[in-house]
Amino acid sequence: MQMSIAMQSNQAPGNRAMIQHHAPTVMRWLLVLMLVTAGCFSSLIPLSAQSPGKSSPPNILFFLADDLGWRDLGCYGSRFYESPTLDQLAASGLRFTQAYTAATVCSPTRASILTGQTPARHGCTNYGGSIDPSKHISLGKTLQRSGYQTFFAGKWHIGNTTPQQEGFTEIAEKSTRSGDPKTDPKSTRSITQSTLEFLNQIDPDQPFFAYVNYHAVHTPLRERADLVAKYHAKRTANPPTSFGPSGLETERDRANKQIQDDPAFAAMVEGLDTSVAKILESLAKAGLKENTIVIFYSDNGGLSTKPCTSNLPLRAGKGWVYEGGIRVPLIIRWPGHITPGTTCETPVTSMDFYPTLLQAAGLQLLPKEHQDGISLLPLITEGTRPARTTFYWHYPHYHGAGCIPVGAMREGSHKLIQWYGSKRYELYDLSTDPSELTDISESHPELVRRLADKFKRWQNSFPKIKYDSVNKFKKNK
Q1: Dist CA 412 CA 390 (whole Å)
Q2: 408 near 424, Cβ under 8 Å?
Q3: Over 80: is that where the pLDDT of 297 sits?
Q4: Residue 113 burial by CB count (10 A; 0-12/13-18/19+): exposed, middle or buried?
């Protein structure tokens, strides 16, 4: 289904033209001065006081899963995991088939969501890394200053930076150790409960931004025993089969999981889905559903080199710049603005959330902050494709899943991979080879040269690239 809803404008150009036509010259210039002055300071005025005649700015409910792969939901093709709530969310909103993360691991992506900047710019390039709050104004801080009630729950994982420093005033940071080992081993339910408590005490006259970060489905794989038993029985009764294709059984010296069949992982997906259901039900009962943007996203691709999940037909998983490591589920629902049940094949990325949500909230864009993202509002409300065609990734580290320091870029359907520390490139055409099975670099040397030059210019726009020289990971370690 194609997106068909047109974005409604609050402007009245006909009326404005009539006022300008009849006003005397002096009054006309005074009017222009007043409008310009008001525009300059509108971002500093609380939302409740800016436009009393306009509809209220939307609430924002952002769910971020941990290590959930592109194929890990029913609406994305999983035949073993069960996710009825998220499947219904997709049916009532917009599902992206080519949503990317800023990085192959968690912390850089989380930093990019908040800053609108690529990891090469904000400096957090590996898990556990930090960003400097004094060098940016984050999405949370911008919304908080604009009158939003800001709430954070769950996994933070951006080094020494704190949620408070990034604009969150209500915080329920939860470690995986805070949950009951038998009933809530990944804190999924306690994160959900904290979110429900926040929603029950919000000021109805002010919009809210609730950023809910789950630890599921990150390793170790733990869920309630009854849920795990359910999927053991399901696997025994109907053994899952591979999505294919063949040829992706290993990455370097690591096995690449071919089948989605782990009962504990499946139980974690169900636990996550059930928790999202409780929050969405609370939202609807409070009468907030119609004016709330709901986003569901993951921080990187699924981990496919341990007994976790399979991202097939995408190649590899977390830690790699192949599609399985950076392409993830993304669902957005916004009643009255997004056509229900639509699918979008346009590539998007983590840095786009910041400008998109500012524009959706009626706030001024801050291009000096979200330098590497674009607003997706025309895309999600009108179906207007953005002019951007190029995406970049920078991961100068070794990873336990077997990856070595690497960078990548995608221009149109062509994807170039550069292995740092060598002159070796790989080239794939994702339009015909989404599984990245056939490296076409040798047959397209001119294209490799052009893309490599473009990638080098991008790299040179940041501080000198430094990559790990020692691999601290050993097989089976």
Answers
A1: 7
A2: no
A3: yes
A4: buried
One-character DSSP codes across 207-260: -EEEEEE--TTSSS----HHHHHHHHHHHHHS-------TT-SEETTEE-----
Task: Return the DSSP state at 318.
Answer: T
Binned at pLDDT 50, 70 and 90, residue 47 comes out as very low
pLDDT score of 360 more than 70? yes
pLDDT value at position 475?
A: 53
Amino acid at 38: A
Residue positions counted in the chain: 477
Report which of 395, 390, 405 is spatially closest to residue 455, judged by C-alpha positions. 390
Distance of alpha carbon 173 from alpha carbon 111, whole angstroms: 16
Is the pLDDT reported for residue 331 higher than 60?
Answer: yes
| Euclidean distance between CA atoms 106 and 98, whole angstroms | 18
pLDDT tens readout for residues 190-207: 999 999 999 999 999 999
- Domains delineated in the chain: 59-388 (3.40.720.10), 391-460 (3.30.1120.10)
Residue by residue, DSSP assigns 364-426 as PP-TTTSTT----HHHHHH-PPPS--EEEEEE-S--TTS--SEEEEEETTEEEEEETTS--EE
pLDDT at 48 over 60: no
User: Which among 194, 198, 214 has a CA at the least distance from the CA of 206?
Assistant: 198
pLDDT digits (tens, 9 = 90+) for 61-103: 999 999 999 999 999 999 999 999 999 999 999 999 999 999 9
User: Lowest-confidence range among 118-122, 303-307, 426-430?
Assistant: 303-307
In terms of Cβ atoms closer than 10 Å to its own Cβ (0-12, 13-18, 19+), residue 124 is buried
Residues 6+ apart with CB under 8 A from 24: none
| Distance from C-alpha of 78 to C-alpha of 329, rounded to nearest angstrom | 12
- Compute CA distances 274 → 31, 176, 227, 354, whole Å: 54, 18, 12, 27
- Pairing mode, strands 414-419 and 406-411: antiparallel
Mean pLDDT of 163-179: 92
pLDDT of residue 65: 99
